[in-house]
Write a structure and sequence with these properties.
It contains seven helices and no strands. It is an all-alpha fold and 111 residues long. The protein has a single domain, classed as 434 Repressor (Amino-terminal Domain) (Orthogonal Bundle).
Length: 111
């Protein structure tokens, strides 16, 4: 994977969407340290790349440099991705409340 191209594509997508890279990483659910991790040589997971592609409304192929056409094979957002994106956009105290609720539901479900 060409990390320089990935960073360029992400930068271009952020500019078109009118958000900073950090905002995009948080709102897409890939995490604040996404750039730092790839700059250190960590290969991003397919799930994280897919989440970014959905967030920007481009194909995964475009994001990773397999095509110059953003719309090719564009990913559709799954309900789980939409939920994750909505949760990470909440303030930390609300995220904590949801986390506790999910843990309580999981505990009830395991009984």
């Amino acid at each position: 994977m060409d990390f320089n191209r990935l960073q360029k594509v992400i930068s271009d997508c952020c500019e078109r969407k009118g958000v900073s890279a950090r905002t995009a990483f948080v709102e897409s659910g890939v995490g604040r340290s996404f750039y730092d991790n790839i700059n250190k040589g960590s290969v991003p997971s397919v799930d994280k790349l897919q989440a970014l592609a959905v967030y920007f409304g481009v194909s995964l192929d475009y994001l990773v440099g397999n095509t110059d056409v953003p719309e090719v094979n564009r990913a559709e957002e799954t309900p789980q991705m939409a939920l994750a994106r909505a949760i990470v956009a909440l303030p930390p105290d609300k995220q904590e409340m949801i986390s506790k609720l999910v843990a309580d539901l999981a505990a009830l479900n395991s009984k």
